[in-house]
Amino acid sequence: MCESSTLKSAAYSDKTPSFPRAADVAGPSSGFARAPWLSSPRRSAANLSIPHLREALHSLESKMATLLSERDLLESRLEQAVRLQSPVQRVPNDLLSSIFTIAVLDGEEEDSITLSNLMLVCQYWRDVAVNTPMLWTRIAMGTHRSVDRALLKLDRSKSAPLCICLDFSPRMEHGTVSTESIVTAMDLIRPAIWRWKTFHLTVPSRPQAHIALTRCKEQAPLLEVLSVRVAHSMQEDHYSAPPLPLFERHTPRLRSASFTSFNFNWDTALLSNLRVLKLGGYWNGFSPSVDVILRTLRACPQLEELVLRNMSDVDPESCASLLSEASEQDDYVLARVSDTRTIQLPRLRKASFYYSGNLRTRTVFSLLSFPALESIELCYLDNVSPILESLRKQSLTVLPLRHLRIESCFLNELRFARLLPRLPALTSLELVDVEDVTPNLMRNFATPPVSQTWVCPKLTTLSLEGCTSIDWETLRSIVESRLPPHSRAFPRQPMARQESPARPAVSMSSASAASQRPTASSSSSSSASAFAATAHILAHQPSAPAIASASHAVGRPVRLESMDLTRCHQISKEMVQWLRMYVAEVKCETVKSVWGEPSLS
Known about the structure:
Layout: H1 2-15, H2 22-26, H3 50-83, H4 93-105, H5 112-119, H6 123-130, E1 138-142, H7 147-156, E2 162-167, H8 179-189, E3 196-203, H9 206-213, E4 225-230, E5 256-260, E6 276-282, H10 290-298, E7 305-311, E8 319-321, H11 323-326, E9 333-335, E10 343-344, E11 350-354, H12 358-366, E12 368-369, E13 375-383, H13 385-395, E14 403-410, H14 413-419, E15 428-432, H15 439-442, E16 461-463, H16 472-481, H17 494-497, H18 510-516, H19 528-535, H20 550-554, E17 562-564, H21 573-579, E18 585-587, E19 591-592, E20 598-600
Parallel strand pairs: 1-2, 2-3, 3-4, 4-5, 5-6, 6-7, 7-11, 10-12, 11-13, 13-14, 14-15, 15-16, 16-17, 17-18
Antiparallel strand pairs: 8-9, 19-20
Helix pairs in contact: 8-9, 13-14
């Protein structure tokens, strides 16, 4: 039995290969240390305990976390170092603040969306924006404005000049505007009056305006623009106690004042040394007299813009007529004034009179001297012939008038025709709903006689809105006569190439060339395509070469660039299409097709 077991073990050992142990291979002199968890099972139980293994793992994880944090720190420093190489990151704080200010405050209103986007770029830009006082100087409060936003801007603006706008306009969606909210807003910004640069106030009624302005009793040394607007100007509230004195009459920098239906007792101390004066919304007993207007204008010798709108006219019984001219026409009846001296306004560039009273406007205009006037608007003033005569008298010395607008007024055609040649710098003429504009008057803008010069040679914008007495022939002659004599837009005809070069150059417009050809007689009501076909307008170019002499080009007028024929029903669709071939912009009413779609604009 023993022998058989011995033989079986020997046979098994012959078939199974034997491997040496690691300790035998390495030898007793090997330098490799054996890990405790790889030790033989005969090691002590203390070296193989679970807490010891967990402690070893925790130590390795701590070392790995420390290395990862150091790596993240190095990566952030590397990213910051690379970012600093960009030119944007090297911009100084003051220059970056200036860029932010231009981006946010470039327009008339604050661009709050741009400001929010700038603050969301990075923390550095946010800190620069928060520490830039000019970005927080425009404070707006009203029925739909946040008070907390205004408080934040007051704090961040520090000592920078403020632009205040209190808009409590009565709107249906906002309901009734309470006086308490207006007083609360005024009390909020009252401590910063010394920083006000512009102040705009809009309230529904006069009592609310007076209650709000009773808070303005401190000096305003930085105030430049003051605007007070009462929305309900027609309301008869008989509130006649003005909150005087406003700002203790100390506004040395005030340059622009605009009052709409606000009673300030016409304090000339508040309206002196102005550059811009706008008055409007004064009816019945609240309207200013002619003496008040003249006294105010005398206190503003550097005035550049004057606007009078929506005022009741003065009493006709307090008028005096000029005997030397009253026999010719009753247009020269003027209001009585205490001081008839001429008011010199050498810097007046823009004047607008919109329903400001015929007698008041006529009297004030007759006592003004305006050698720098560039724009004037006369709207809803009945007869403006005396004002046109005053313009003509001023043009005898100097009158660089560029823009003239007459709306819903009567005028003497002869006096207007005498004024137009005296306006060589006129570029824009607007005649809106003027019934006295006739074809005879408008023919002055066409080709003049040989012995006369062009009327308004720089005219580029012509508006005849609502002038239904202008016929098509007059419009066509005006447009054609002001076309360039050698326009490249028209192809040269074969007959022009057959002419002899020795033939003298003759400069003619398309209108004059059309008049020399035998054409069939056609009425003004015919279509523009018929005119173009008979006059060969669509394919005509003068045969003469361009004149090199500069003296001939000086007298030529410029080409019309814009025409407004809105509500001119005598002008057909074909005529408008013809005009658009030679005028860049032609405005007219939209004509709807059978299906209601606009076919002409």
